[in-house]
Design goal:
transferase, globular, Aminopeptidase, about 30% helix, 7 strands, alpha+beta, single chain
Length: about 160
């Protein structure tokens, strides 16, 4: 697979569907997350980002919750966005897609005037996020049956 890819905000319906298809492949099919937990009301108002190969094949996605949607996940701070649903297809792992998606979400957060980005990381991914400047805080907790930790990076 070519390592040439781009990341953009998913602003049109086709891009949003590509985001959902990647999430279905990674979370529902690969990790066994129930579909009713994977898709939620936040999808309608979140900022989504999409990584695509130069031929248009979707490689990964992530989303940023903003404002009132993020407050419940960020300890009540409306100036902090909540990064979530970061997913990279199995075939695209190791190409830098995940890091590029995180940076794209952070760019959106900066554009919206946010001061930090929070996320709930699966514990096996803590090192990935730490390498990108995120710091874990609080105790481990279950989400969709998997252990997670809260993390934050100030912008």
């Amino acid at each position: 697979m070519s390592a040439v890819f781009g990341v953009r905000q998913a602003l049109d319906p086709e891009d949003r569907e590509a985001c959902f298809a990647v999430r279905r492949e990674v979370f529902v099919e690969e990790q066994g997350v129930p579909q009713e937990l994977e898709y939620d009301a936040y999808d309608a108002t979140a900022a989504h980002v999409l990584a695509v190969r130069e031929d248009g094949l979707p490689l990964g996605t992530g989303r940023l919750l903003l404002g009132a949607d993020a407050v419940g996940k960020t300890g009540g701070d409306a100036s902090v966005g909540s990064l979530g649903r970061l997913a990279v297809t199995k075939a695209a792992r190791g190409l830098g897609v995940g890091a590029a998606l995180v940076r794209a979400v952070e760019d959106v957060a900066r554009e919206r005037g946010l001061t930090a980005v929070d996320l709930h990381a699966q514990t096996h991914a803590l090192g990935f996020y730490e390498r990108l400047g995120y710091e874990a805080y609080g105790p481990e907790f279950p989400d969709a049956g998997m252990p997670h930790r809260a993390m934050r990076r100030f912008l």
